[in-house]
From TrEMBL:
Keywords: Disulfide bond, Hydrolase, Metal-binding, Metalloprotease, Protease, Signal, Zinc, Zymogen. It comes from Salmo trutta (Brown trout). The active site is at E163. Binds 1 zinc ion per subunit. The lineage of its organism: Eukaryota, Metazoa, Chordata, Craniata, Vertebrata. Its EC number is 3.4.24.-. Gene3D superfamilies: Collagenase (Catalytic Domain) (3.40.390.10). Pfam families: Astacin (PF01400). InterPro entries: MetalloPept_cat_dom_sf (IPR024079), Peptidase_M12A (IPR001506), Peptidase_Metallo (IPR006026). GO terms for biological process: proteolysis. This is Metalloendopeptidase. Zn(2+) binds at H162, H166, H172. GO terms for molecular function: metalloendopeptidase activity; zinc ion binding.
């Protein structure tokens, strides 16, 4: 296997730690990404110039409600084998906040072929801004596309990685087309206006496994109206899930597989969302 697969061998658990030159984050960083997103996006009123939001996913007005199910929204692979994704970080973030964002951007280069770099004059790029909560479009949209990381609630390593994975083309784990084989959605416990977050998407999963430890998997009580679980795994209802604080090995593996950067990644341990 090439370097990107080899680097997975350095990981000791389902969550990958990148601890050098890290800005100090408060104890909320220990919460799962699902809990952080729910808290940050609760009772938001987006500005008039912001996109329609479905949770933390921005919906393009000119496309249908099944985001990014074609390769047209993948980022370009260059001759060196890497995927170079331009970005800008708005100047309203403090140096400490920029360090947290930069840590998330740089973490992809440690174990994948994704290379985020500061935009010069590229047409298509990510514009990382302090907007209404945490959100991103799914996949490459063309021109400037907002990745919102609100200063209040979104500046954690897990949320940065989560929103960047959306921008790279991934949807939430619980919306997989085969999720009913792995979790039972307890519709009766979900707040009515958030039931859309559990609707399945017609994904083509390429025979890959469901990842309970994915940073894209929401937690057991996500959008609960009565403090009862909204998702129950099976056949073992006691298995832990939705507790990721950083990308899992499967997240890394599937990203390399999606972008053709790891010829011999373990097919039983990755999950592709939104692509065939």
């Amino acid at each position: 296997c090439n370097l990107f697969c080899w680097s997975l061998g350095r990981l000791n658990g389902s969550n990958v730690l990148f601890t050098e030159n890290v800005a100090e984050e408060d104890t909320s960083a220990e919460l799962s990404v699902g809990e952080l997103l729910a808290r940050a996006n609760r009772d938001l009123t987006p500005e008039a110039d912001e996109p329609t939001l479905m949770g933390d996913i921005a919906m393009p007005s000119e496309k249908n409600a099944d985001p990014c199910t074609a390769r047209g929204c993948m980022w370009q692979k260059y001759s060196d084998g890497n995927i170079w994704v331009p970005y800008v970080i708005a100047n309203h973030f403090s140096s400490r906040e920029v360090a947290i964002i930069q840590r998330g951007l740089d973490s992809f280069a440690e174990t994948t072929c994704i290379r985020f770099f500061q935009r010069q004059n590229e047409r298509d790029y990510l514009s990382i801004e302090n907007r209404s909560g945490c959100y991103s479009y799914v996949g490459r949209q063309g021109n400037a596309q907002t990745v919102s990381l609100a200063r209040q609630g979104c500046l954690y390593h897990s949320t940065v990685q989560h929103e960047l994975l959306h921008a790279l083309g991934f949807n939430h784990e619980q919306t997989r087309s085969d999720r009913d084989n792995h979790i039972r959605v307890a519709w009766e416990n979900i707040i009515d206006e958030y039931k859309y977050a559990f609707e399945k998407i017609a994904t083509l999963n390429q025979g890959t496994s469901y990842d309970y430890n994915s940073v894209m998997q929401y937690h057991r009580y996500a959008f609960s109206k009565n403090n009862h679980p909204t998702m129950v795994p099976f056949p073992d209802s006691n298995v832990s899930f939705g507790e990721a604080t950083q990308m899992s090995k499967n997240d890394i593996d599937r990203l390399n597989r999606l972008y053709g950067c790891c010829e011999y990644c373990h097919t039983e341990q990755f999950t592709v969302l939104g692509f065939g």
